[in-house]
Design a protein that fits this description.
The protein is mainly alpha-helical and 261 residues long. It is 38% helix and 8% strand. Helix 1 crosses helix 3.
Length: 261
């Protein structure tokens, strides 16, 4: 978004002056100083692109690296580096083609289910996974289809999921009015909790399962059903990637060490 428009952009520019050209002599103000909310929403509310012309890579990378430090000096918080990216793109007049509906997650709106069939499939998909995790967690993570196994037809999700800090859901699911008598269990995916060697074929053979907690876990905004399917998608995608990767390499994950009692 355009939150950075409230920053002291002149100060940031002074610490990282724009490149000297015939159109921008030394000492001129950075183009991003004149940005409007309309400019940001249409062209610059983005992170590093999926597709970029090779001739733009070096110039954009260099300008981005120059602007990160002064932006962080003014705003020493998360996303300073992303605001600096937007400033760099604007400085070079690299207007982005922002494609809607390519991916979903906590940073973008969740998909809207069109029609009764998709809405029913969304609820049924979420309930299917939540119930399987609650009753048969071992079987729920053993899938040969990866993330696609999370969605019942005719539900078709976007091709990309932005896996944020964490997604979670609570069981029993869905919560009924009389379910307060049951102790809720929170199931969640937290990317900072995942072992760095999770895809290593010499790592534990047991598939990744959602993490468990009896304490309330943050649930991202939007429909709870999509939070369930976000957990399902990430967990199943990781397990599928490891399985296929190890099979292709002719390796097999090692069996877990037996418990010694």
């Amino acid at each position: 978004g355009g939150q950075f428009l409230d920053f002291n952009l002149t100060q940031i520019c002074d610490q990282a002056p724009t490149l000297q050209t015939e159109k921008s002599p030394l000492g001129s103000k950075c183009p991003f100083v004149s940005l409007t909310n309309n400019d940001v929403n249409h062209y610059y509310s983005a992170g590093p692109p999926y597709i970029i012309h090779i001739q733009d890579v070096l110039a954009l990378s260099k300008r981005w690296s120059e602007l990160v430090s002064p932006t962080y000096d003014y705003y020493p918080l998360l996303y300073a580096e992303m605001f600096a990216y937007s400033l760099a793109a604007a400085d070079l007049n690299l207007k982005h083609n922002l494609i809607k509906g390519l991916y979903t997650g906590c940073m973008t709106p969740w998909p809207k289910s069109n029609g009764k069939g998709e809405l029913e499939a969304l609820k049924a998909s979420a309930k299917m996974y939540a119930k399987s995790i609650e009753n048969e967690p071992d079987k729920s993570v053993e899938s040969s289809e990866g993330a696609s196994s999370c969605f019942l037809p005719p539900l078709t999700p976007p091709p990309f999921l932005h896996y944020c800090a964490r997604y979670s859901f609570v069981t029993p699911y869905p919560a009924e009015n009389d379910s307060q008598k049951d102790t809720p269990t929170y199931h969640f995916f937290a990317k900072r909790r995942v072992d760095h060697d999770i895809l290593d074929c010499s790592h534990d053979n047991h598939p990744l399962e959602p993490f468990l907690s009896t304490k309330p876990e943050k649930i991202e905004g939007g429909p709870k059903d999509w939070n369930v399917l976000a957990v399902c998608s990430v967990v199943q995608a990781i397990n599928f990637a490891k399985k296929k990767g190890c099979e292709t390499a002719g390796l097999h994950p090692v069996e877990p060490n037996p418990q010694i009692s």
